[in-house]
Amino acid sequence: MSAASFLGISGAIALYGYDGFLYSIGFLVAWLVALLLIAELLRNSGRYTMADQLAYRMRQTPVRSAAAISTIVVSIFYLLAQMVGAGALVGLLLGVTSPAVKNLVIVLVGVLMVIYVTFGGMKGTTWVQIVKAVLLMVGTILITFLVLVQFGFNLSDLLGAAAEKSGKGEAFLQPGLLYGKDLVGKIDFLSLALALVLGTAGLPHILIRFYTTPTAHAARKSVLWAIALIGSFYLMTLVLGFGAAALVDTAKGSQIQTSAGNAASPLLAQAVGGGEGTVGGSVLLALISAVAFATILAVVAGLTLTSASSVAHDLYANVYKKGQVSERSEVIVARIAAFAIGAVAIFRFPRSG
Questions:
Q1: pLDDT at position 145 over 90
Q2: Are 340 and 295 in contact (CB under 8 A)?
Q3: Cα distance between residue 3 and residue 81, in whole Å
Q4: pLDDT digits (tens, 9 = 90+) for 81-92
Q5: Contact at 8 Å (CB) between 42 and 219?
Q6: Which terminus of the chain, N or C, has fewer Cβ atoms within 10 Å?
Q7: In angstroms, rounded to a whole number, what is the distance separating the alpha carbons of residues 21 and 272?
Q8: Which runs of consecutive H residues, i.e. helices, occur in the chain?
Q9: Is pLDDT above 70 for 310?
């Protein structure tokens, strides 16, 4: 339930209709893979990181090095996606297009994230993610309810209005706008499905969570809760996406188009609150944007913590020091790594954005 999901999926649905919803389906199926094949087995192993699990039956140094490096690389790319969402929000809220201003906010977000990861550790990051999840669900439920009120709780009217406003007619509600038009499109769709289903189940900041549960039963139970909450969330992104298509301008050159869909949910909140210039619209826009920022911070913190743990535990303690290291020095290295990884994400963003 990251900012990439909250902002990106609703935006993809607003722009591409049916094909945008494929992201929601892929992410949800990925959690079934995590439940059936990963959660209990990982927790039963009693290890600390994914590298611990792999190195149990293989050669320590090469396996740990490969696992740690892949964790860091995946996390940094995911960090960049979250930073892109932050940049889009800044542009929407402040009405600025200056790259310098956006980059300044990115730096501030990154610094805040590094500070509470460094001093809060796993417990602090967990509480931030709990608060984020509650805020995200409450905000999404509120906007979903207000969108459905606009259409008398009639999904057929919502879909019809979205199809008509999009300018694409019935094609907006059918496969093919983004994937499947030709052979390349079909290969793109297959690649997307594999990446979502297998990639999500293997994300480092998700895997490390299984090692924090007290028992294997608790790990399995946590995934069931995750499936219920995330399933509900992704069903609501359907309403958010089609609601944005029906109630907000998605034409070429609009804010939704220029932000690659990332502005869809905040602009939809403004629309159902009364529109631009109204008190209700401004309040809901601020609320949803605040929820999105909290989501960005929480996900970025989890990714940074995971990468820092992998650097300290796998590369430093087990590869470099061969296990001859104190817990205190491992913690110090993890904090230094958090600063370094945060710096890479912050200062790589301006060139990647």
A1: yes
A2: no
A3: 9
A4: 777 667 667 666
A5: yes
A6: C
A7: 22
A8: 3, 10-16, 22-33, 39-45, 50-55, 60-94, 99-150, 155-166, 183-194, 200-201, 204-210, 216-247, 255-258, 264-272, 279-310, 327-352
A9: yes
